[in-house]
From TrEMBL:
<dbReference type="InterPro" id="IPR001763">
    <property type="entry name" value="Rhodanese-like_dom"/>
</dbReference>
<dbReference type="Pfam" id="PF00581">
    <property type="entry name" value="Rhodanese"/>
</dbReference>
<feature type="domain" description="Rhodanese">
    <location>
        <begin position="33"/>
        <end position="130"/>
    </location>
</feature>
<dbReference type="GO" id="GO:0004792">
    <property type="term" value="F:thiosulfate-cyanide sulfurtransferase activity"/>
</dbReference>
<dbReference type="InterPro" id="IPR036873">
    <property type="entry name" value="Rhodanese-like_dom_sf"/>
</dbReference>
<protein>
    <submittedName>
        <fullName>Rhodanese-like domain-containing protein</fullName>
    </submittedName>
</protein>
Amino acid sequence: MSQTITVGFRKLVDDALEQIETLSPAEAMALHGGDDVVFVDIRDVRELSRTGKIPGAIHAPRGMLEFWIDPASPYHKPVFAEDKRFVFFCAGGWRSALATLTAKKMGLAPVCHIDGGFGGWEKAGGPIEKPEMAPGEKRA
């Protein structure tokens, strides 16, 4: 039996983008380092180890986000109860659009995401902490 997808990922992402705030990498860089802003990296840990991270960003894997945001969850992370602006990002902006909409629906506010994600940030010259290399390892 084959499944028919009735709503594809592109439609989900496009619908999310209509309902959330999207920052350009330059706008995100202007906010970076502010005391009232939390950058939230939802990429997989393997992505962070390959490409590095935005300095000061917290890592909240996409699969745990709802549990970390909800104060009623046994997995709740106190950072999500702080009165701050949350800037979500992933590698290219699709997952973070969906995550930002989910966070908004849950009542976390204000929330936004970076257009183009980490890749857009890097291309625009945003600061990056490169991953540590193991002894004897060489960068590709």
